[in-house]
Amino acid sequence: MNEPRLKHVQCLDSRGLHRMAYWEWGDAANPRVLVCAHGLARQGRDFDVLAQAMLPDYRVICPDVVGRGRSDWLADPMAYVVPTYVADMVTLLARLDTESVDWVGTSGGGLIGLGLASLPGSPVRRLVLNDVGPVIEAEAIARIGTYLGQRMSFASFEEASDFLQSISASFGIRTREQWLALTRPMLKQVGDRWMLHYDPQIAVPFRAVKPEHIAAGEAALWRSYDALRIPTLLLRGANSDLLSRETAQEMTRRGPNAQLHEFADVGHAPMLVDADQIEVVRKFLLSP
């Protein structure tokens, strides 16, 4: 298998500078760039299979959003919010020296893409939102809150992998090989224990959200979505508890009138490792 190159870019925050890691696949001189952004508590190696499938056509960039994977942890935990992530991506795109990018964002990575794509003069040419929209269902927020940011350690890789599988059953992963490939980059060994590869403090702003914040946030996200004027593909796990069918249908009628594709027997969120899922994304990104 081809292996990605690990690189870093220095970004600005309210306390100083931090380094964001990103994984680069393919020809560094290829002007056609695809950025793949992961979910809330994941990391850039989630896209290994998709990246390899897109290599004939793209230079593929898979960042570890700050606080995750190989990126630095922030001094101020309240900075773990979408505006920080969007600003980091602007810095990343400057480093990549490209006029335009296509964007695939899973869950939180989709919200980062939405924020970037809705800016005036945005370089985002095509947008794939993977199981996320302006309305985040309360059931999913409660579910994520049961595990996000807990300071856990495990006696073995297998124990840690089993825990991750227990909170990720909705991904719809079909084989043990696929699951282990997704799991290895999520863990790091510290002494004789295994830890999750993200800053537990990413949960601080998540837990600080009040009901009135949710309503205001939804309104802001709809404004961003309605401002889009680019081809947009919306993916949904048919059993998703985060993106409702009602919200998905509304997204086909508003803003960019997204194309909607649902995957059966998957919840939140499709991991884009199966051939049928990859083909849907590939066909959309490479269509005239």
Question: What report would you give on this structure?
Answer:
The chain has helices at residues 48-54, 82-96, 108-117, 138-145, 157-167, 176-183, 203-207, 211-226, 245-253, 275-286; strands at 5-13, 16-25, 33-37, 59-63, 101-106, 124-130, 153-154, 187-190, 193-196, 232-237, 259-263. Helices cover 35% and strands 22% of the residues. The two termini are 29 Å apart. A hairpin with a 2-residue loop joins strand 1 (5-13) and strand 2. Helix 2 crosses helix 3 (108-117). The mean pLDDT is 95. The chain has 10 helices and 11 strands. The protein is of the alpha/beta class and 288 residues long. An 8-stranded mixed sheet has the order 1-2-4-3-5-6-10-11, with helices on both faces.
Descriptive tags:
288 residues, 35% helix, three-stranded antiparallel sheet, alpha/beta, eight-stranded mixed sheet
Summarize model confidence as the mean pLDDT. 95
> How many strands in all?
11
Tell me the overall shape: globular
Q: State the end-to-end CA separation.
A: 29 Å
Low-confidence stretches: none
Summarize the structure.
With 288 residues, the chain is of the alpha/beta class. It has helices spanning 48-54, 82-96, 108-117, 138-145, 157-167, 176-183, 203-207, 211-226, 245-253, 275-286, and strands at residues 5-13, 16-25, 33-37, 59-63, 101-106, 124-130, 153-154, 187-190, 193-196, 232-237, 259-263.
Blueprint (SSEs and pairs):
Layout (H helix, E strand, L loop, with lengths): L4 E9 L2 E10 L7 E5 L10 H7 L4 E5 L18 H15 L4 E6 L1 H10 L6 E7 L7 H8 L7 E2 L2 H11 L8 H8 L3 E4 L2 E4 L6 H5 L3 H16 L5 E6 L7 H9 L5 E5 L11 H12 L2
Parallel strand pairs: 3-4, 3-5, 5-6, 6-10, 10-11
Antiparallel strand pairs: 1-2, 2-4, 7-9, 8-9
Helix pairs in contact: 2-3
